[in-house]
Amino acid sequence: MQVTNLTKKHGDELIIADASFALEPGKVTCLLGASGAGKTTILKILGGLDNDYSGTIESALARPSAAIGYLSQNDKFLPWRSVHANVALGLELTGQHRKEAFIKAEETLARLHLSDFQKKMPHQISGGMLQKALLARTLALEPKLLLLDEPMSNMDMLARQEYARMIRDYIISTKSTGLIVTHSIEEACILADNVYILSAKPARIIAEIQRNDAYEDYVAKVTAALMKALQ
Amino acid sequence: MTHKKTNVFLIFLPAIIFLGLWEFGVMGSERLRFLFAAPSLIFQAGLAALSTGTIYKDVFFTLAETIAGLCWGMAAGTIVGLLLSWNSTLNDISRPYIILLGAIPIFALAPVTIMWFGIGFLSKAIMAGFAVFFVALSQAYEGARIANKQYAGFARSLNARPTLMIRKIIVPGALDWVFNGFKMNVGLALTGAFIAEFVSSEAGLGNYILRASSLYDMPKVFFGLLLMSCIAILLTSVAEAAQKKFWPH
Predict the structure, then answer these.
(1) I need a labelling partner for A185 at 20 to 30 A (CA). Which of A56, B19, B208, B230 fits?
(2) Total-model pTM
């Protein structure tokens, strides 16, 4: 996917200014910026949920569609369905037969080591586990593009490592494309192969940092670039 | 917050005190016993009514009218509420008419329904249904609106077919609100049936109470009211059980 000169306005207010970036298959990219910089708006545009923008988005994927797995910060499970039935929901919504959807959901939960929780209701599991189960609902659809909005905000360090492994395994094994937006340097560095640094509103891309070095050097470079962007 | 189970005796205590005060308060005064009856007199009137058997027909009529009214009123109100939540144009057009019709007091409809549908079962069931229609509509509308706002974003991101979205998310999401509406509506349906019976009828608890009050037979009036409450409790329990089954959360 290639995004060129993406610009978004709310009335006279400029939200995103000429953002250009490329997303590569088999890699996770991160847009890192301060809260309220317009990161979620970029995700919504790429997910096809906001079509009021200028610029070009070159992609073979229909937007919106099940080929794009968009996991927003506000996504919730249906409280009347078990975790298993919730993971099957996306498949059912794309027209798959209920029985097939449930089998596939079970397989996805097993692959992500979440089978122990599949019979529980959403209110019976922890916030971190819920985030993982929500990811399972998205991954069950086998999306070609994964759009994640601050996906690890409710997790402790161990859960973050596990979650990042789940995402990276999926992206590498399926040669799909991942994009996360976050304000957390840690989240960006754990997950992403390259990080675009965004300025404060209006969001402009200030720098791009590739993950070529050791993790500590990568974190140092990203931190320095973000500090510079926010000054 | 943890909730400790309350002792059953404590739940019944206010009723025991109330009935005791009532019984002793009217004791020794024929005038007070005539005006307010007494728990022991109501008990005797109840036993007499149950042993002669005519009361069963009245209970059956009121119960059947209430259930029939609840069924059609809830079904029609829920369907209209779901339709309005889905189509904003339809909602904008129909909203003033719904407010207009909803503002009509149910009592005012009784003579009209009796003129149109007679004094039998049908007019009572229609009155009971009218009494619940607007609450059912408003609950279904609000439940569907909230389900759409809270849970349908995921379906939209998949570009899911609207029919699937309604079937899998909107309707089940609105069910909790519909069941809460059902519980509120039990009392309203009973009131609708009662008013229709009170205005003109040949049977039913409204008719029983009307006959008793015209003879100044207060124990019978209170016994009729007690039976009405029993019907309300029975139907509310059914609604609660159904809600627990379909909405375990």
Answers:
(1) A56
(2) 0.83
**Mutate which of A46, A93, A123 to test chain B, going by most B C-beta atoms within 10 A?**
A93
A115 close to B (CB below 8 A): no
Q: What is the Cα–Cα distance from A28 to A211, expressed in whole angstroms?
A: 11
Give the start-to-end residue ranges of the domains of chain B. 56-246
Residue for token digits 């399926």?
A174
Distance from C-alpha of A229 to C-alpha of B184, rounded to nearest angstrom: 57
Question: Which ipTM did the prediction report?
Answer: 0.89
- B85, B82, B65: which is closest to B132 by C-alpha? B65
Tens-place pLDDT, residues A122-172:
999 988 899 999 999 999 999 999 999 998 887 888 888 889 999 999 999
Close Cβ partners of B16 (under 8 Å, ≥ 6 residues apart): none
Q: Chain A residues with CB inside 8 Å of B161's CB? A: 93, 95
Find the DSSP H helices in chain B.
8-26, 30-36, 39-52, 54-86, 88-102, 106-117, 121-151, 153-157, 162-165, 171-199, 205-214, 218-246
- Using DSSP's 3-state secondary structure scheme, residue A114 falls into coil
Closest residue of chain B to A147, computed from CA coordinates? B157
Of B151, B157, B158, the CB nearest to A76: B151
Pairing assessment for the beta strands A194-198 and A145-149 based on DSSP bridges: unpaired
State yes or no: cis peptide before A64, omega within 30 of 0.
Answer: yes
pLDDT over threshold 80, residue B248: no
Candidates B158, B165, B176, B177, partner chain A, best to mutate (most A CBs within 10 A): B158
Question: With contacts defined as CB-CB under 8 Å, which chain A residues touch B168?
Answer: 89, 92-93
The minimum CA-CA distance between B131 and chain A, rounded to whole Å, is 30
Helix (H) or strand (E) holding A67: none
B245 touches chain A (CB under 8 A): no
CATH topology of domain B56-246: MetI-like fold (1.10.3720)
- Tell me the pLDDT tens digit for each residue of A77-131: 999 999 999 999 999 999 999 999 999 999 999 999 999 999 999 999 988 899 9
Name residues whose C-beta falls within 8 Å of residue A217's C-beta, 6 or more positions apart in sequence: none
Interatomic CA distance for residues B179 and B187, integer angstroms: 14
Lookup result for tokens 């994927």: A61
Measuring CA to CA, how many Å separate A166 from each of A51, A61, A159, A170, B140?
30, 23, 11, 6, 40
Contacts of B173 in chain A (CB under 8 A): 78, 80
Q: Residue B84 carries which side chain, given as an amino acid letter?
A: L
